Amino acid sequence: MRARTVIASFGANLAGACYIFVYLEFIAPIPPRWRTQTVVTAWLAVALLVITAVIQHRLMRRRFGLATAWMAEGRLPTPAEQQATLALPWRSTQFSILSWGGGSLVFATWAWILHSSALFAIQVLITIALGGLVSVALAYFLTERAAAPLIPVTLQSDTLKSEPAPGPAALGIRPRLILAWGLGSAIPLLGLALLPLDAKASSITGDGSPSISGAVVAVALAGVVAGLIITLAVARSVADPLDHVRAGLRRVEGGDLDVVVNVEDGGEIGLLQSGFNQMVHGLRERAQLEDLFGRHVGVEVAQRALAAGSGLGGEQHSVSVLFVDLVGSTALAEVLPPGEVVSTLNTFFGTVVRIVSEQGGWVNKFEGDGALCVFGAPTFQPDHSERALRAARRINQAIRVLAPDHHGLSAGIGVSSGVVVAGNIGTELRYEYTVIGQAVNEAARLTEIAKGRPLRVLATGDAITQAGDESGRWVSLGTVAIRGSSQPVAIYEPLSVHADSP
After folding, report:
1. In this model, does residue 2 exceed pLDDT 60?
2. In a 10 Å sphere around its CB, with 0-12 CB exposed, 13-18 middle and 19+ buried, how is residue 134 labelled?
3. What CATH number is given to the structural domain containing 374?
């Protein structure tokens, strides 16, 4: 990588030298009288070019090593190392600016010593400065391209999440456009501006005022072609990455969070691409947390927590509570192999969660081999009793269908309705969303009673009276005393285990 960067810098310097040679030899030729010491001047130019290349090689080797030490050590970069890595092309270009600035002063002084002409010295100074502009612009674009493989590694989406995002270390869009303007427009136009100066310098020597029309045409055509090529290249370097980001945004909008765009630049565009990747990474983590959170506490509770934020407290809700508990689970664990016990429990809980979710309820918690399910909170449901009773019957039906394949699978189910307190219970460090009230107690007590009934399902009178058409599928069994309740509780069971709603 370092060698490619040095070669790119040397090639840019050579291009600047070629520009000077072509300009002084063919476009604005040096008058014959001033073509003395040509060999010495050529050797001076070669010597400066070689010395510059050697110094630049040493500097880039040192800077490259310091900037990429983190790669050799197999770790993530610090913010300073990240900035240094992204700034490598610009650091190389800064040396080119200094070297060409110094070179233009050296050759202008040499021209003054040889010919004692301020006009000619100025011409040499400006011509070499234009060649330096060519070299500097090309040096940046070429070294940036050579260092491009480092950029995605340096700006990877999971780098330095705890650190503030660094600013652009490479040239941004505006400086790039200025460099493109310099290569495509400023240099040719300044070359045209120098032609009258060349003609004046020639007339001072007695050579007359030569025609500059051919040179004007040549420089103008070169400017048109070079400007078009460079403008297209810069426009593509800006438009293509933005198109990739836009395509990524469309995929994210469609729900695809696996999209990643390649980071191709160390400036604003590269930071935009890296920021997009970090954004998608954050959305991916949020979706995973929502899914995991929803699996732990229920989708409805997770959505409520994300919308309302954290905090302790509760509010009253009219709900229906469904409690379901396996019959003889202890004996089941004693007679069945562990693998079969786990399979039976997973099948049982899977059935409960599926049916409760289909009826719009949610499983508040698993308690050993039982489950507490709630209808009507946190989302308001005016028909919560009907939903809970229908879910109770369907869970019972599903368990009876599964029983032949799962030895001893049976469960008691209790349903009760009433006003409860629903909210976050615990401390600020650890709490859970749950429901507290008489309906919860009644549902749990009815579950134990239901285990001794043939149909295994019981509901309170309060649940039945609020259930609308569903109440016609249940029959009264009278009243029963329930621990924790001061009055006998009316209880009901389904007309038939096969009774179902339309």
Report:
1. no
2. buried
3. 3.30.70.1230
